[in-house]
Amino acid sequence: MQKNQLYKGSLSTVVLKLLTDNEKMYGYQITREVEKITAGEMVITEGALYPTLHKLEAKGLLSVEIKKVNNRPRKYYFLTENGKKETVSLLNEMKAFIQNMDVLLNPKTSFDV
User: For the chain, give me the number of helices (H) and strands (E)?
Assistant: First the structure.
């Protein structure tokens, strides 16, 4: 399995976490921030990001604000109240998953105690 498949499965959680930390962001800004935070290890394509944003918006987790920047419309995404609650839940699930994966990949024997 390629790491991109692993990333794709967690893209919604990544987007929601970024919006928690940054209040509101536009699509390109999200892609650049992920690349910056991961030192280029995680690259989100527009083809993956925008369907995720639209899905989160359709679920009522995101709202959109359109502002003109340099005389062009720019869509800013931000969390709804339901989005904030869902983010907490998804982050807890992700942390538990990571802990379980760590246990599976690094099992401790009775001698390690």
Answer: 5, 3
pLDDT, tens digit only, all 113 positions of the chain = 355 666 667 899 999 999 999 999 999 999 999 999 999 988 899 999 999 999 999 999 999 999 999 999 999 999 999 999 999 999 999 999 899 989 999 887 656 55
How many angstroms separate the Cα of 112 from the Cα of each of 104, 106, 107? 15, 11, 10
Domain hosting residue 84, numbered range: 3-105
Total tally of structural domains belonging to the chain: 1
